[in-house]
Design a protein that fits this description.
This protein has 129 residues and is of the alpha/beta class. It has 5 helices and 7 strands, in the order H-E-H-E-H-E-E-H-E-H-E-E. The protein has helices at residues 2-30, 36-43, 54-59, 70-75, 96-105; strands at 32-34, 47-50, 60-62, 66-67, 86-89, 111-114, 125-127. The longest helix is centred in the first third of the chain and has 29 residues, at 2-30. The chain is globular and about 55 Å long. The model has no long low-confidence stretch (mean pLDDT 90).
């Protein structure tokens, strides 16, 4: 019983660590990862895209951002210009690596990602609460 529980916990820990390493590797290959301060300073006047669910976006989001859900952006990113920098963020940095990879593969060379996602952002936000 204890051995089974230990094995399950060990597998879960390995999965979590492996997932984090894979995500960080994808981000480094496909995008520039920016701290909260750098993201705010560099994104001003550019395309800021929030890939979270609409309800979370409506509740609170980075000032100047627009909401394009993860699945919609993954299927069709024609709303983004390839010749301009794109700034992406999600809740905690999990899905943004996948989108960055898709965009980079499709010719977007100026993809920037908020390190740690919206949960770590300390800049100007718009809140509807």
């Amino acid at each position: 019983m204890w051995i089974t529980l230990f094995v399950i916990i060990l597998i879960w820990l390995l999965w979590m660590v492996g997932s984090r390493i894979w995500t960080n590797r994808l981000l480094k290959q496909s995008a520039t990862v920016l701290s909260s301060e750098d993201f705010e300073a560099q994104s001003h006047g550019h395309d800021i895209v929030d890939i979270r669910e609409p309800a979370k976006f409506k509740s609170k989001h980075i000032f100047g951002a627009r909401n394009i859900q993860y699945m919609l952006l993954k299927e069709n990113h024609a709303a983004l210009r390839k010749d301009k920098p794109v700034f992406l963020y999600d809740e905690n940095g999990q899905f943004v690596a996948r989108i960055a990879k898709v965009l980079h593969k499709d010719g977007y060379n100026q993809v920037n990602v908020l390190k740690g996602g919206f949960n770590t952002y300390k800049g100007k936000v718009k809140s509807n609460q």
